[in-house]
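Entry 14. Ran structure prediction on the chain below.
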Amino acid sequence: MTVPTPEPRQTTHAPWQELLQGGHLPRFIVLCLGVWLHAADSLMVATLMPSAVIEVGGAPWMGWTLALYEIGSVVAGAATGLLAVRIGLRLAMCGSASLFALGCLASAVAPDMAVILIGRLGQGLGGGALVAIVFVATDRLFPDRLLPVVMALISAIWGASAFCGPLIGGVFANAGLWRMGFVAFAVQAAVLVLLAVLLLRSDRPGR
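Output, structure tokens:
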């Protein structure tokens, strides 16, 4: 009587292990940076703007620094998803991060509240576009089995970023360097552009 030979057991990895070890981590970091920029910058002004108002004035318009950011985010978020599919993730990510960086620099060098508001609108447009691209990229860059863990981690990063935004603004404001708060986010956006160029080259525009 022949004894059947047992089949070799297939080793399966948990989705989070595959995300870390399967070559997906670099692209995931790009998406996380996009979420970080939008979520942290959106609330940074809550603690940063009182110091800015002391220098440039415009206290009655201070609430618009948040309102214009959110308006820009909604408008860009509604339109950028389709654009990212048409022109490709890399180009869309680079363009959105560049717009975000320009908005930060405008606020950083602003001589008055009007320029700060223009900069905040640019930041909102760029940040909202980044988030829309992140959701498109999540579906296009990762296999279906990884989507739950990727979305869960992105949500956690969003929450942590929103929590850290006011803290970061408070640190710069307390040091008397409110302009450097915007510069810091402009630098991070420039890093995102570089990472997108290097790590999203495999994406191609679709229909």
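The radius of gyration is 20 Å. Will compare against last week's run tomorrow.
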